[in-house]
């Protein structure tokens, strides 16, 4: 017994060191990146990466496909933009408000949507988010088609001037890392294990005595809050909150990022977000219609590439290991 | 005639008629979704895009081939149905053994491609489609003016809906279909070619969407965006009605269209969201939907 457990521990430690090394290299790259690449582009990638990670927490680890995550992302952007611009709040207060509001919306959405499973869950979240879209179109404070423009970036904690691109970049990086760490911690906690059990076999999880609805609801609220944090951050970075962020196309885009990078892998959504944002900014300069290209990637991913990039890599690596 | 709650009857009945027409389209589309879901276990996100394709086929036939409304009413559903069968044979059929969510994601991608392609080619502004000569003008019913074409749309979609219901619930072919929904392996063992039946079902379901597109062309403008916004409302309708029954889909579609029309009269600001609010309430009270059963 002891020998066996020792050998497994060694076997686990090997990859753990590897992971730590990779993480350190990635962190260094992220710190150095703004000196090589355009900071606004990097910040966009980070915002969408956090959004996609939040979404992945549901689909990848709890098996819930939410087709309405743009509602949290977009509404939080409006809240952050409104509190900072109209009420003169500090950026950190605006972001906190955005996160809390998105979390509360997640609670309401979750209470309604969790009553059905699978495909119905996806349709209900989509319908609810379309309702949020119409509200954003009609409510006075969102300014309809114009959106909230010219949001001041302000001083973070009254100290750091966010109008400096580098300061803004490192702030966004810190927010992303905090969000990512929270997701990592959640996935590797007993709570995360129960979520995976629900994903694999919900009736069995119920029979083991878990109140699966509660677990799903907590996961949903957490995911919505983090999506809101991403949306609020995006509003501060781009100094703009608009209808684009609340549309069903945005909900679809985050699904694509996660699918392309690899559902249920921690790094997959980050890779997917990076690729999709890069692709879109490249396509913007060509005459190719963006939705058609996005749609084609969707179809190819679903038909032949369901593991996603990171998922496929990990699959190959583990196959070679055995 | 006296006004009702301060609303002139012309306005009230006008909006109710509009609601009935919207409801007819909800019914036609949710019917197709229900038929496809029953057989394939796929939620067809591309349904709205194929409805749009139906309308565009009608417009293209008129503009480039000079074939009018009545021809389009036959040709467009056939074209859309064949396109559907092609999509099912080449792509959807590979996903049946996987989680149903992949079917939703695939058809979502297809919807993006179709919509993006038409948008690239024809822009976002709508193309006008004339009302056929035989259905121009209208009837004065005393309390309101009924344009002939709108009356025709309501009657035609009711006939199609109940025809479909009859075909599925009361004919031999429909009995095979329902049996194959319950237990495909057993039905195949009786010598019925289930894969072909699945393809035909998908083709038929999307042909209904194409037909709805042709019916809609003279009322709404023919635009690349006409389908997707509609399909999300139809999803809500399907959730409210529950996917278990064909008749349920029809009744819920018409009822919600009327409700939307009424909301437009009494509280116009909420008319866009009333269907979603009803969905939320129904889910809280009866999660399986009004006509659905838990499974």
TrEMBL record, chain A:
Stretches that traverse the bilayer: 20-41, 48-81, 93-112, 119-137, 168-187, 217-242, 254-276, 288-309
Record GO terms (molecular function): branched-chain amino acid transmembrane transporter activity
Membrane topology: Multi-pass membrane protein
Pfam entry (one): BPD_transp_2
Keyword Transmembrane (UniProt): yes
Keyword Phosphoprotein: no
Alphabetized InterPro entries for the sequence: ABC_transp_permease, LivM-like
Highest rank taxon of the organism: Bacteria
Subcellular localization(s) per the UniProt record: Cell membrane
GO CC field: plasma membrane
Annotated keywords: Cell membrane, Membrane, Transmembrane, Transmembrane helix
Stated name of the protein: Amino acid/amide ABC transporter membrane protein 2, HAAT family
Organism listed in the record: Azospirillum oryzae
Automatic annotation (TrEMBL), chain B:
Pfam families in alphabetical order: BPD_transp_2
Coiled coil stretches, renumbered: none
GO biological process, one term: amino acid transport
Stretches that traverse the bilayer: 12-35, 42-61, 67-87, 99-118, 149-168, 200-220, 232-259, 265-285
Membrane topology according to the record: Multi-pass membrane protein
GO molecular function, one term: transmembrane transporter activity
Protein location: Cell membrane
Gene Ontology cellular-component terms listed: plasma membrane
Keyword terms of this UniProt record: Amino-acid transport, Cell membrane, Membrane, Transmembrane, Transmembrane helix, Transport
CDD domains with a match to the protein in the record: TM_PBP1_LivH_like
Family under the similarity heading: Belongs to the binding-protein-dependent transport system permease family. LivHM subfamily.
The protein's name: Amino acid/amide ABC transporter membrane protein 1, HAAT family
């Amino acid at each position: 017994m002891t020998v066996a457990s020792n050998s497994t521990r060694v076997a686990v430690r090997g990859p753990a060191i590897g992971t730590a090394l990779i993480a350190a290299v990635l962190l260094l790259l992220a710190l150095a990146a703004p000196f090589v690449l355009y900071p606004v582009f990097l910040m966009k990638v980070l915002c969408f990466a956090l959004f996609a990670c939040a979404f992945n927490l549901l689909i990848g680890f709890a098996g819930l496909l939410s087709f309405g995550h743009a509602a949290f992302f977009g509404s939080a952007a409006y809240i952050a933009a409104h509190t900072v611009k109209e009420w003169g709040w500090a950026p950190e207060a605006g972001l906190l408000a955005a996160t809390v509001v998105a979390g509360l919306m997640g609670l309401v959405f979750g209470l309604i949507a969790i009553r059905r499973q699978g495909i119905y869950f996806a349709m209900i979240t989509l319908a609810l988010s379309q309702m949020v879209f119409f509200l954003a179109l009609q409510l006075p404070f969102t300014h309809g088609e114009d959106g909230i423009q010219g949001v001041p970036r302000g001083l973070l904690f009254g100290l750091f001037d966010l109008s400096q691109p580098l300061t803004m970049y490192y702030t966004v990086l810190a927010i992303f890392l905090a969000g990512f760490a929270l997701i990592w911690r959640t996935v590797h906690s007993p709570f995360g294990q129960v979520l995976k059990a629900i994903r694999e076999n919900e009736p069995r999880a119920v029979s083991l005595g878990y109140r699966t609805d509660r677990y799903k609801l907590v996961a949903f609220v957490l995911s919505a809050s983090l999506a809101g944090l991403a949306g609020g951050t995006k509003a501060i970075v781009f100094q703009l909150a608009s209808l684009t962020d609340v549309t069903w196309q945005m909900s679809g885009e985050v699904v694509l990022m996660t699918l392309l990078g690899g559902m249920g892998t921690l790094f997959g959504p980050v890779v997917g977000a990076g690729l999709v944002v890069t692709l879109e900014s490249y396509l913007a300069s060509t005459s190719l219609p963006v939705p058609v290209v996005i749609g084609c990637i969707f179809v190819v991913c679903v038909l032949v590439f369901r593991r996603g990039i990171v998922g496929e890599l990990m699959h190959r690596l583990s196959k070679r290991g055995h | 005639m006296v006004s009702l709650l301060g609303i002139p009857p012309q306005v009230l009945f006008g909006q109710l008629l509009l609601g009935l027409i919207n409801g007819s389209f909800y019914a036609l589309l949710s019917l197709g979704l229900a038929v496809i879901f029953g057989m394939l276990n796929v939620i067809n996100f591309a349904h709205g895009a194929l409805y749009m394709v139906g309308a565009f086929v009608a417009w293209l036939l008129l503009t480039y081939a000079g074939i009018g409304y009545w021809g389009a009413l036959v040709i467009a559903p056939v074209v859309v149905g064949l396109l559907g069968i092609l999509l099912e044979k080449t792509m959807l059929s590979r996903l049946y053994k996987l989680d149903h969510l992949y079917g939703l994601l695939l058809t979502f991608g297809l919807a993006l491609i179709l919509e993006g392609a038409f948008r690239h080619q024809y822009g976002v502004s709508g193309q006008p489609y004339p009302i056929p000569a035989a259905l121009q003008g209208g009837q004065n019913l005393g309390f309101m003016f009924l344009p002939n074409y709108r009356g025709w749309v309501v009657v035609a979609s009711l006939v199609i809906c109940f025809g479909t219901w009859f075909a599925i619930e009361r004919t031999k072919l429909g009995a095979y279909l329902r049996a194959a929904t319950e237990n495909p392996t057993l039905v195949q063992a009786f010598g019925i070619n289930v894969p072909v039946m699945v393809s035909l079902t998908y083709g038929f379901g999307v042909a209904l969407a194409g037909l709805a597109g042709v019916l809609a062309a003279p009322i709404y403008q023919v635009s690349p965006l006409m389908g997707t916004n509609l399909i999300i409302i139809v999803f809500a309708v399907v959730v409210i009605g529950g996917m278990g029954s064909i008749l349920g889909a029809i009744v819920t579609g018409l009822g919600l269209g009327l409700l939307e029309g009424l909301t437009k009269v009494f509280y116009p600001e909420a008319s866009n969201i009333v269907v979603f609010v009803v969905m939320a309430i129904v889910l809280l009270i009866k999660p399986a939907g009004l006509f659905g059963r838990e499974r």
